[in-house]
């Protein structure tokens, strides 16, 4: 089986899992509805994204036990809605507004940069050094972090942030470094690396006396 099957199953069930929690705990307040709209919709959008421009790394074959492990691992993200709905916590409106804005911005970065990567590499192999990847080498991961940060904010609890930190340190960053190692085979990679950030974009650059650009990440 492909690794994406376990991931897609989790993404597709997220909406129904959150809705089930709302019925089990009879919690139909603002927070759960907003969370359902954001995280549930994100799950469906992920399935649509996989259909239109799939991520090559999730096409790899895995054993059934590995697939089960991936499914369980991804479902750690379900702890956030469980905490929110079971606790009965009602997030204040300003926090809801910030979370929605952060989520929209994250979905934009994640999906559009993935689309750029997919269609660029489909027709031309090599480094992608423009558009969403001009100043950041992993705009898609940055978007995903913003998405799950928004979900964690709604819970007003530290544990979802800890889970996100675990994914960042044990999965996202290793994948980003592995990608850098793979791209280093291109002669122009060193120049590209100097003017782009691993995760945060390098927005400003200053030319020194030797004409070499020094850039700061923001």
TrEMBL record:
It comes from the Bacteria. The keyword Membrane applies. Keywords: Membrane, Transmembrane, Transmembrane helix. InterPro entries: UstE-like. Gene3D superfamilies: 1.20.120.1630. This is DUF1295 domain-containing protein. It comes from Mojavia pulchra JT2-VF2. The chain crosses the membrane at residues 5-24, 30-48, 68-87, 93-112. The keyword Transmembrane applies.
